[in-house]
Amino acid sequence: MAYTRGDSKNIIVGAAAMFVSTGAEFDPDTVVFPDFVEDDSYLDTLTDSVEGQALVRNIGFTTNGLELQFQPDFGEVQVDQLLDVAKLYKQGMQVNLATAFAEATLENLLVAIAAPSGDYDASVTLDSPMDTGTISQASTLELTSGAIGECPVERGLVAVGPGTGDCDPNAYIERIYVAYRALSIDNVTVSAKRDEASMFEVSFRLLPANNGSYGKIVDRTVNSTT
Fold first, then answer.
1. What is the average pLDDT score of the chain?
2. Does 176 map to a domain?
3. Is residue 4 part of a domain?
4. What's the CA gap between 133 and 151, in Å, rounded?
5. Among 71, 67, 58, 140, which residue's Cα sits nearest to residue 100?
6. Which segments of the chain are extended strands (E)?
7. What is the number of structural domains in the chain?
8. What is the Cα–Cα distance from 57 to 23, expressed in whole angstroms?
9. Neighbour-count burial of 145, counting CB atoms closer than 10 A to its CB (0-12 exposed, 13-18 middle, 19+ buried)
10. Which of 39, 81, 113, 200 is the most exposed place for a label (fewest CB within 10 A)?
């Protein structure tokens, strides 16, 4: 076989669309994301998903893409006869997912600060910023401090982006990133600046489910019938 330098089909360029589970809680052992639909992009399936299969919401525009980082932690065994370590053993693992929400909605801020769904009210009547009343319709996000012993809010994440393969509209590959348990753990800044868009930079710490899995990365071929 003749030597080839590589395969340009395996180069991936392009952004991913991100969806987040909605509702008060997300349990990866009881809640599942929608099944694949033959000849349909998973983007369309997520958009058309109904209650009973999954409760997901499109985050909308993002910036700086999606970054999935794996951080293994290794211990060392040193012996007298070697100047370097004789053996490495894995003693820890950490997985993080980072992105930035470019749509500065209260719904996205709720996800970015890992607040419970009950802190957001899409339709409330207010007579002042401090009180509830019957004058103005508004959406509110209550900024609460939480309490000692309060369980952190975990949400499921799904992102769909381009995969490897030819740019053939009749047979293309999409790459699907699934995270079962995602917790927002870093500082989140809310800004209002004259020369810069307000966006929420967020870093999610991924935790393994009961089976030890953080999630999946799936390359799926979609054969378009149109």
1. 84
2. yes
3. no
4. 31
5. 67
6. 17-21, 56-58, 62-77, 87-101, 120-126, 136-141, 155-162, 171-184, 200-207, 215-223
7. 1
8. 10
9. exposed
10. 81
